Amino acid sequence: MRYLLRRGLHALVLLFGVSILTFLFSALTPGTYFDEMRLNPQISPETVAALKAQSQLDRPLPVRYLHWLNALVHGNLGFSFAYNEPVAPLLWTRACNTLLLTLSATLLAWLIGLPLGIWSASHLHRPPDRLVSAGTATLLVIPDLVLALGLLILAVRTGWFPTGGLTSTNYDTLPSLQKLRDLASHMVLPVLALTLSALPTIVRHVRAAIADELHSPFLRAAAAHGIPPRKLLYNYALRAAANPLIGLLGFSVGTLLSGSLLVEVIMTWPGLGPLLLESILARDFFVVIAGVLFSMLFLVAGNLLADLLLCLADPRIRNAEHSQ
Amino acid sequence: MAPLLQVENLRVAYASARGALLPALAGVNLALSPGEILGVLGESGSGKSTLAAALLNLLPPNGVIQSGSVVFENKNLLRASPRELQSIRGARLSSIFQEPSLALHPTLRVSQQVSDILAAHSSLTRAALREKTVDVLASTFGSEAPRIARSYPHELSGGQRQRVLIAQAIACQPALLIADEPTASLDPATQREILQLFRQIRDQLGLAILFITHNPLLLNAFADRILVLYAGRVIEIGPTEQILASPQHPYTAALLHSLPLSLIAAANAQTSRAGNISSAERALRLPVIPGEPPDLSLAVPGCRFEPRCSDKMSICTTAEPELISIGQSHSASCFKYSATR
Amino acid sequence: MTATSQPLLRVANLTKRYSVRKPFAARLEFIALQNVCLEIRARTTLALVGSSGSGKSTLALCIAALERPTSGSVFFNEQELTTLPENQLRQIRPQIQLVFQDPARSLNPRWSALDLLAEPLLIQNRLTAAEREKKVLQLLDLVALPRNSANKPAHQFSGGQKQRLAIARALALQPQLLILDEALSALDCSIQAQIANLLLDLQSQLSLTYLFITHDLAMAAYLADQVAVMHRGQLIESGAPQQVFRDPQHEATRALLTGAPPFAPNPQTPALVNA
Predict the structure, then answer these.
(1) Partner residue opposite B217 with nearest CB, options C158, C215, C272
(2) A319–B58 C-beta distance less than 8 A
(3) Where are the domains of chain C?
(4) Could you give the angle at the alpha carbon of C164 between the alpha carbons of C160 and C169, nearest 5°?
(5) What is the spatial order of strands in the sheet that C96-99 belongs to?
(6) Is the whole-model pTM more than 0.90?
(7) Above 50 in pLDDT, residue B71?
(8) CB C188 within 8 A of CB B44
(9) What is the end-to-end Cα distance of chain A in Å, rounded?
């Protein structure tokens, strides 16, 4: 318990630090949103000046930071210049869209990757294992970009799947079940792309971790006691191999918000990625900070989750932390 | 009485990375009766651990059983199917390997590791399993059993871990227990306790024990018979008292004489009561066996112990000796005894 | 061989306490050594025996100045070690060397014998590479290892050979005191005899002094001039082996001896008797 509180505190401090850094970098990047505006002949310089004054961009940095922090505590993430709406709801919708993709992809990748890795390890160096290794190697070599584009081309050629977007244009008119189908069909390609890019890492790590444990003395001793092979593999080898895999799981969770940017952009999925990209390019200050912070939150949460799971799974770590 | 375990002409080798075969056991024969404790005395390179693994048909992936049979309760384990083996191992024939700290799963509770074995060989309900687990642990831990059951291996001392291994081995009341250096990493006081425990379980359960060790002192007043292994061969076998008091094979004799205990005994026998033992002993060096155990990858026509033997004869380099009966149930494989017989 | 007037090593009132802190519990103090006093004369062997947890290894570490005691002093050649600053201590360290129980773990298995034996020479930094190699070959001769094995990686040596390497490495800096912490315990019986004899030969050849920590009482009786018995951090008895083992004064010493193979065997069977 004390261990978790300590880690939680670390996490908070980390988030603080990140927020300061992001604020600093964003504020120090040359240019503001209003520079673009100034170039627009349709808007008068006075309007620009007024808007600029309103956004308090001329105040000193620490003051702006404290202001922002204060607003954050009250749940106000600022105002998006580009979208002309408060950041919080904007971010929220986009993040949910992203999570829809990444959660499905991560779940799928682990559901396939874990058994595949175990199966591969139990046939180490024999044809099934070699096949899996070749497959994962191929997938690893293909860049995410190529993968996503390839899937898009497939969609275009076959017409089986929509080629982008969240939903079809007639979404709102559809009955609920159809709505679900529509959403699902739009999700297939991006989820597939994300799963395929995450799968090889998981399979390889699982395979390596299990292969390591298969030579352990305790596994041999358990076999000598007549423990059936299936139990040996799942209850003994997998449990012993859990530590590095839990770390990997933490990483998977950590990148839930940040790992899908490329795929989202290519498949025009309205997620956090494209939003962040646009906002950076448009100098949409508050959106950038909020977006980065949110991603960091997930990363930190992912690490914390991994630590928690490690404590739960490995009594040696539990004891070590206790004696501190 | 039919032997419980009969091993005939067991030959085992290991395949090296390049495919060459390194022999480890070169034709081992032994027989074990029910309830008997057979001590297998062997040092590094004698093939004792290979023997333990081969008896269970649990050699590492590069181990090759070249020939021979291991008949346990009328079943040749070397020809049994994986399913049959799985039902025999842990239930009728169990084992304790070296290094108790490594033989237990690091993140499973002791109770789990014992009840898994019970579950693998019986169909008890979960509650019955729990009860039986505590019973089994009680046979080696007494009243501490519930606390030990809840513990993890890293929370236990070396001696306690060894007791857990023993509990695991006797959980299903096997007929034969193979123990490979079970006391090697323990301090002497704990060693004595564990040996005492072995005697206890043999008396209570009537099981036979194949006790492998490199230390002859452990077999004293413990084993019924001793089998001496050298270079993958049985070179002497006989009743414990006979072997320890009057070893016939030059290796066994040299081994026993190289123990400091023997030297002290000899010094005591020689010095007068008023002598200073220390300086008398110091003048006597421990009679060591010169050289190193042989490299079995090199094929040699004669006796494997010949290079280090103090009693060698010309025939020893040209032919390999067979086991020759010397006394009642005492045999040694040495040419010294063939001429007179 | 006349004994020198002052002992080579003198330990006076050595105490070592460790404190362990658990969450929500009071600080626990573990007393590893309590007021230990002993002496070792030059060119002799002191065997330190006792059950596990009695503090033998802790004492060895304090003597070797690898642990600072809580109180008390360690005199080596009449120089007090516990209060010396590290840079001065460094001058004395080559004089006191250690050999551990498990050569597989105290020697890096990937390094060749040459690298392992040259390392201490390298740290002292006074020889050229050629001189170092020459010294290494001399060391191999000392411990009866073939010269052509110098380039073999450590993991290719047998257990007994590895321990010879460990001893050779300890001798590289020409120490006066060698602390052997259960150095024979992990070896096969016949190899133990070989290494024990080697140690005796080296002792007379190089005028070494040994602190031999063991739980094998027979080996202690064979190798040692003096025996000291430890129990729960205290030195409870000491004297010549035949005195201590024949006529133990302390109950803990008696407990050590019971069940251990007896030292007064039946003269008819010089090998062994029933326990």
Answers:
(1) C272
(2) no
(3) 9-257
(4) 145
(5) C96-99, C177-181, C209-213, C45-50, C226-231, C234-239
(6) no
(7) yes
(8) yes
(9) 12
| Chain A residues whose beta carbon lies within 8 Å of the beta carbon of residue C21 | 323
Residue ranges per domain, chain A?
2-86, 95-282+298-316
Question: And the tokens for A27?
Answer: 């504020």
Q: Is C260 on the interface with B (CB under 8 A)?
A: yes
Residues B116, A227: C-beta atoms closer than 8 Å? yes
DSSP string, A94-119: HHHHHHHHHHHHHHHHHHHHHHHHHH
Chain-centroid distance of CA A5 in Å reads 24
Predicted confidence at residue B325, as pLDDT, reads 86
Contacts of C256 (CB under 8 A, 6+ apart): B188, B189, C49, C50, C51, C217, C229, C248
Residues C220-252: tens digit of each pLDDT: 988 999 999 998 889 999 999 888 888 888 888
H helices of chain A, in order, are 2-28, 33-39, 45-54, 61-73, 87-122, 127-141, 144-158, 176-214, 217-224, 229-231, 238-240, 242-254, 261-266, 272-282, 285-313, 315-322
For tokens 């988030």, what's the residue?
A: A15
Cα torsion C208, C209, C215, C220 to 10°: value is 80
Chain A residues with CB-CB distance to C22 below 8 A: 322-323
End-to-end CA, chain C: 39
- Closest residue of chain B to C203, computed from CA coordinates: B282
The verdict on A323 touching C (C-beta cutoff 8 Å) is yes
Measure B139 CA to nearest chain C CA, in Å.
23
CA distance between the termini of chain B: 29
The pLDDT score that the predictor gives to residue A172 is 77
CA–chain centroid gap for A300, Å, is 11
Nearest CA of chain B to the CA of A256: how many Å? 29
Question: Do the Cβ atoms of A286 and A80 come closer than 8 Å?
Answer: yes
Among A173-187, A286-300, B217-231, name the most confident range: B217-231
Residue burial B168-177, b: 16+ Cβ < 10 Å; e: rest: bbbbbebbbb
Chain A stretch 277-316, residues whose beta carbon is closer than 8 A to a beta carbon of chain B: 313-316
Q: What is the pLDDT of residue C215?
A: 84
Q: Chain C within 8 Å of A318 (Cβ-Cβ)?
A: no
pLDDT of residue A57: 65
Looking at domain A95-282+298-316, what is its CATH homologous superfamily?
Answer: MetI-like (1.10.3720.10)
Chains near A, with 3+ CB pairs < 8 A? B, C
Partner-chain contact A217 B168, CB within 8 Å: no
CATH topology for C9-257 is Rossmann fold (3.40.50)
Q: What is the pLDDT of residue C23?
A: 60
- In this structure, the number of other CB atoms found within 10 A of the CB of residue A268 comes to 15
Please spell the DSSP secondary structure of C168-188, one letter per residue: HHHHTT--SEEEEESTTTTS-
Give the full edge-to-edge strand order of the sheet including C79-80. C28-40, C9-20, C71-76, C79-80
DSSP output for B90-148: TTTEEEE-S-TTTSS-TTS-HHHHHHHHHHHH----HHHHHHHHHHHHHHHHGGGHHHH
Q: Which residue of B has its CA nearest to C159?
A: B44
**Residue B278 is nearest to which of C219, C242, C267, comparing CB atoms?**
C242
Between positions 1 and 20 of A, the ones with CB within 8 A of C are 2
Per CB-CB distance under 8 Å, the chain B contacts of C273 are 220
Rounded Cα gap, residues B50 and B59, in angstroms: 7
Instruction: Select from A218, A219, A220, A225 the residue whose CB has the most chain B CBs within 10 Å, as the one to mutate to test that interface.
Output: A225
Query: pLDDT tens-digit profile of B94-142?
Result: 999 888 888 999 999 999 999 999 999 998 899 999 999 999 999 899 8
DSSP codes joined into one string, B3-32: -SEEEEEEEEEEE-TTS-EEEEEEEEEEEE
